[in-house]
Amino acid sequence: MCMDINDVLPILDEKALELAEQGDAKVTEHAATHIFGAKDKTVTKIKVKKAA
Amino acid sequence: MNNSTFISEVVTNMSAKTNRNGKIAQMVDSADAPLTANRIAIVWDQLSKKRKAASKEAVVTGIPAKEMLEKPEHILSFIQQVMNSSCWAARRVINSGKQTDLANGLDFSQSVAEQAGNIESAHIKDVECTLMDDFQILNELHSWLCGQMNYMTDLTHCSCSLRKKKLLKVSGNTRTCVWISTMCFQSSMRKPSS
Predict the structure, then answer these.
(1) Does a structural domain hold residue B186?
(2) Confidence tier at B65 by pLDDT (50, 70, 90)
(3) C or N terminus of chain B, fewer CB within 10 Å?
(4) CB under 8 Å to A26, separation ≥6 — which residues?
(5) What's the pLDDT tens digit per position in A6-36?
């Protein structure tokens, strides 16, 4: 079923706003909880396994 | 990672100043997070949100928003300043360990190391290890913030020790003064007398 473009635009606006809010929340969470400078343990483990 | 770091002490020292970096340092100190790097990131996030809210309000009311004195972009230069100050703190600790033994049983180097960065000893290897850990932390934070502010075109990477040098250019009768950035980690670690 085709929708009228005038009906679609407000939905898209709302979706864009929702995605922007989600993105902002993600950035805030990363800023508050991420341990900067910590070595990635998974990568190190893979490297150790490969070396063995 | 251990608890020894220069960053938290450097930020606390910077917060006593009244310049822009001092004000940012005060905001960092008052932010709620256990690690200083997270507190810096939180301040950046708060400043970004504050500016977004102000510009939205300006659109609604029609009154132009007030110019912010501390902008989110200033956090990048603040991080570089923290890294530079960490290098100076490391140098102070190393120099305190180099002093000649007066054979009186007193060693102040350990207390200097503890005060500057909660380091167990003033041995050059311990200090260098702590400084490199700090650089890794601040470098990742700086890179992440650069990624968040990709609208800026003149971003530079975080350096371990960045200083500005005055360069005098003479062409004909005109003399121009140019400031160039130099990375001199080795010289910042050197003793002043050498």
Answers:
(1) no
(2) confident
(3) C
(4) none
(5) 888 989 999 998 998 888 899 999 999 999 9
User: Among A36, A39, A40, A44, which would you mutate to test the B interface (most chain B Cβ atoms within 10 Å of its Cβ)?
Assistant: A36
ipTM, 2 dp: 0.71
**Does B140 sit within 8 Å of A36, measured CB to CB?**
yes
Picking from B1, B33, B138, the nearest residue to A32 by CB comes out as B33
Q: For residue B194, tell me if it sits in a domain.
A: no
Closest-CA residue of chain A to B45: A28
- Comparing CB atoms, the residue among B1, B33, B45 nearest residue A38 is B1
Pair of tokens at residue A13: 């606006």
Residue type, B171: S
Residue A33 neighbours by CB under 8 Å, 6+ apart? B38
Q: How far is CA B37 from the centre of its chain?
A: 11
**pLDDT tens sequence across B121-130:** 777 888 888 8
How much is the pTM? 0.75
Whether the CB-CB separation of B164 and B180 falls below 8 Å is answered with yes
Which range of residues forms the domain containing residue B111?
A: 7-157
